[in-house]
Amino acid sequence: MSDDNRKTLLQTPRDASLWAGLQKLTTARIGLRRAGASLATAPLLEFKLAHALARDAVHEALDEARLNADLAPLGLPVIPITSAAEDRPRYLMRPDLGRRLASSAETVLAAHTGRHDLVFVVADGLSARAVQLHAQPILARLLPALKAEAVKLAPLVIARHGRVAIGDAIATRLRADCVVVLIGERPGLTAPDSMGAYLTWQPRSDTTDAERNCISNIRPDGIGYDDAAFKIAHLLAAMRTRRVSGVQLKDDSDRALSGAAIEGRAGSSE
Fold this sequence. Notes:
Order of helices and strands: HHEEHHEHHHEHEHEEEHH
Strand order of the largest sheet: 3-5-4-6-7-8
Distance between the termini: 66 Å
Strand content: 15-25%
Mean pLDDT: 88
Helix content: 40-55%
CATH class of the largest domain: Alpha Beta
Structural class: alpha/beta
Number of strands: 8
């Protein structure tokens, strides 16, 4: 290869400066250095590390005792249960089992059946690390406001090897009008610890995904804790008022969040 051709494939200092501003705006892999027709060694190794972290997150087990200890100070009973998937490999190979309760879980939940407005479920999903890190900060922001509004809260439920739909079964057993499932999302190459929140009004055994509202990418480098808690609270209030969720309920929390931010700036300037 001639020197002229090699120069066109290698990133020059000028090229690097052009990409630097854009790279600050995203964690996506853009403007990567190249050596010939391939990636340079450093970005290639970084890619392989990110891939390994994502794979590890999928197989990582939930530290249930630690999560229970983190949630206990929030002032609600914490109930640990399991899905019908008895271990992690079976959970990954049989998604349907992660949507169903183990027989032991049915018995545990039966003791807490009542009339509840809302139940929060924390499920490991495909990234136990995500809920291990982010579930407690979100709940710590939400629960005081909900208690102040006299919302009848069911005990917090930790669902090991759980998928989103396990929240439907839990809410049905507890007789809760609404369920919020905080769950580890499928890891990406820039986010092995992303958590999602799935909100469903009056879930049933045949509830579909079209009947849920979802807030995705909850983490400090995605949707931050304060914004995510605001969105969840806003949607919950709308659900209680309109008694619907999913495609029937438009998520206008971004508009409300922008309005709150403007009011906050105006108040601080006075």
